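Hi L.,

As promised, Restriction endonuclease:
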Amino acid sequence: MTSKDRKTLKELINMIFVGTGLVIWYLFFRSDAWYLLFVFILAGVLLSEIVQLFIPALNVKHKRKKNRTQNVKENNKRTNKLNNSSNLTSDIDQLSGQEFEELMYAYFKDHGYNPQLTDKTGDHGVDLVIKDPQDGLQIAVQCKCYKKGNNIGNKPLRDLEGAKRYYKCPATLFITTSDFTSKAREFADSLNSMDIWNGFIVREKLEKWQNKH
């Protein structure tokens, strides 16, 4: 709703309530109490202002619904692209961050993990949410396609551990094409709910999977 439309609607509401008050006064009270004329006019103005308070709220609710619809459409487009991913046989060293995420999505889907994409904006550091086909455990996954030598420290792991609560996941999985620092490994080892895959593990898993296709 534009500001012009909102202004027009407010004027219409004012006219309706004030007009209604005048009609009631004219039909029932005009010969008895002139002061009631002002009471009905004031009541009409106050009621119209109260009703107008709900106009911005309705507009915000409409915008939120529209944004949710857009996010669903974007995720559907991304899912369709991932289902037709051309990265299945690609060298992971040549992939971009998004392409690596697409590859891992395809990997987990083929293994029955029912991967779900998170919104690109405000993903809280989680790229995928997967479900273990054995026990139904929900796992928050972060994928990082880094060059060798660019190792993951413990801060990204801490961020992922905190973000899992937003997605109501009891467990986490951090995947990288590089490796983890010793501090990061210590942090992951201190948690029973976190698993980490470095470049060696990723390549081993992908190689076995790609050989089947």
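The beta strands are 116-117, 128-131, 138-144, 171-176, 194-197.

Thanks again for sending the construct details.

K.
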